[in-house]
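hey m, so remember when u said the tokens were messed up on ur end? i reran from scratch. heres the input so u can diff it against urs
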Amino acid sequence: MHMSLYTSGMHMEVALDALRAIAEETRLRILFVLRRGELTVTDLTEILGQSQPRVSRHLRLLVDAGLVTKHREGTWAFFRLVDDLDRGALIAAALAAVDVADPVISADLERLDTVRARRADAASEYFERIAPIWDEERSLHAAASTVEAAILDVVGERRIGRVLDVGTGTGRMLQLLADRADRAVGLDASHSMLSVARANLERLGVQGWELRQGDVHSPPLERATFDLVVIHQVLHYLDDPARALAEVAQLVAPGGRLLVVDFAPHRHDFLRAAAHRRLGFTHDQLRDWFDQVGFDCSTIVDVDPPAADDGLTVTVWLAVNRRTMREVA
């Protein structure tokens, strides 16, 4: 496999540091399993059959070399391969030279499957406890497939670039949009829900995703970097949805889009017991909030409920950031 390190702008010393970091058995094994998705130190300790201090030391070297990134999720720390084309090409070339049938690699991958299966079981147990509440709510509005079809129609078929799903929950929006996105990030305040999303994304073999723990009111993400930000069935849980929308809007790149999916106004007061702070939003309410943060609401679609007389209408709002790349430059 031929690969040029110079045409991409990667400095020779940087490339040499990365190659030195790769050229060790444990670190090569770590990179091999991280190619399948993010893992914790505990996961890697079990998969590699090595002590936690040893695994942590090798992870630190990979992070220092810029090959692996680390992010915290409460008291947990997750590691994943770096999202960088130059270093990614270097890692891919190194891993391509290793036979996946090698006994050591094969055993690592088997233990990785075991770790993931256990994680999926734990996530399923958590979700089963909260599912009855969601089932009652879902019975009042159009089927998920109908709502998702409306979302895809509004988003359009062109490539999106970087997508952020705020309040990702089970990770369903990441699954839905993954094929159209170059990179998909899910943000949620709940470690338990992130565990559900992680298990779902791994089980379905979704590629190019990342999960981050954080508050919608102070998202731990770089501003003006996402081409599409999705807020799906989140605003009605918040005491101050307008402030949350303003915070999230700052993450949208110039000319990028902000998609909100939530309920139209309704009278189902019993949903307050399921932590609903707001009983829906009007078209004008969202239009005003978008306008206040510099967005034009170009599209509004109502998805009607089933035949039941008093169901929940789901509304899809799509707004575009008025700021352009030229204005920012």
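this time it looks ok to me. DSSP finds twelve helices and ten strands in the chain. if urs says something different then somethings off w ur setup not the seq
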